[in-house]
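sanity check both lines:
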Amino acid sequence: MLKEFKDFIMTGNVIDLAVAVLLAGAAGLVVSGFVNDIMMPIVGYFTGGVDFSDMQIVLSEAIVAADGTVEKPASAIRYGAWVNSIINLIIVGFVLFMIVKAYNKTKTPPAPPAPEAPKGPSQEELLTQIRDLLKK
């Protein structure tokens, strides 16, 4: 059983999948950084200085003790983080679309089918002609 597992893990598909997952994680971090650090400040600038990542609906305020420690953190719906995630998804989808489009352009188009050779008479027709010629 251990040998079968080793053979399964060492197949090319599993290794390719592992590399793809690691690259996707790294690409996700890059895209998240791009959205949070580059795109959202630009969007915030054009929306009057709004920072979407801080937007939330507070359901219950945090309870802070007299010494300044937080006894109970605030409960909030962070819809601004959700907006960032939606923008993140749109950017990732667009980048994947561009990659697939470029990949499809690199593929060679299928060769057109070769023209069929002109059909001659069938064997039966040839034999019939030979028979008729021999009768004469």
